[in-house]
Design a protein that fits this description.
This is Metal dependent phosphohydrolase. One of its GO terms (molecular function) is hydrolase activity. Keywords: Hydrolase. By secondary structure, the protein is mostly helical. The protein has a single domain, classed as Hypothetical protein af1432 (Orthogonal Bundle). The protein has 9 helices and 2 strands, in the order ααββααααααα. It has a two-stranded antiparallel sheet. Helix 2 packs across helix 6. It is globular and about 50 Å long.
Length: about 200
């Protein structure tokens, strides 16, 4: 794991420190470092939120999803008496868009990249699936892996933690598409999504 990528990931995601399980925290960090290296990214902050929305970074979105999901999990616990696994929620949120390290290399200027690995870096596989694959590769628990794919139909059985990630992702994405383009997430998906 490159020290530079490790430092970038730790600076980008202070929420990593809230994952109680040291091994899980290391796996999340490792998945990001692998994704960044294979994608050839010079800086984690250069990955855009969407292929056509560069005003917001992927880091901002991932942090927003994590914050929204954790607050919703707290409400589920405190108000409804549910028992979400907060480490799973945090790890899955932090990893839900790590696959953009691969998918978005074709949508940024070449000066933001150093030699992307063509075996991984392409838009051929949706980022939620490549993110799942990265989480699997570094040994994240199945509960985290299951919560990463966030498009309809990717996972047949949804867990409480997976639903938290999915709904937080939608909430953050709606805010971003509204602020950046003046349209809802659904309108963005209908007009611009590459995975429908």
């Amino acid at each position: 794991m490159s020290d530079d990528y490790r430092a970038q990931v730790e600076a980008a995601f202070p929420e990593l420190d809230d994952i109680e399980d040291d091994g899980l925290r290391d796996r999340v960090r490792e998945a990001w470092c692998l994704g960044l290296a294979r994608g050839g990214w010079r800086d984690i902050e250069d990955i855009p939120y969407a292929w056509n929305i560069h005003e917001v970074t992927n880091v901002e979105h991932v942090r927003g999803v994590t914050r929204i999901a954790v607050r919703a999990a707290e409400e589920q616990r405190d108000f409804h008496g549910a028992d979400p696994d907060f480490d799973v929620v945090r790890a899955a949120c932090l990893l839900h868009d790590v696959g953009k390290c691969y998918e978005y290399v074709d949508f940024v200027d070449d000066d933001r990249l150093d030699d992307p690995d063509p075996e991984f870096a392409s838009g051929e596989i949706p980022h939620s699936l490549s993110g799942y694959a990265l989480a699997h590769e570094v040994g994240c628990p199945l509960a985290v892996q299951r919560a990463i794919p966030h498009f309809i139909g990717e996972i047949p059985t949804r867990t409480l933690e997976a639903e938290l990630v999915k709904s937080a992702n939608s909430a953050s994405s709606n805010a971003i598409t509204q602020a950046a383009m003046g349209i809802s997430l659904q309108e963005w998906v209908e007009e611009y999504s590459q995975t429908q």
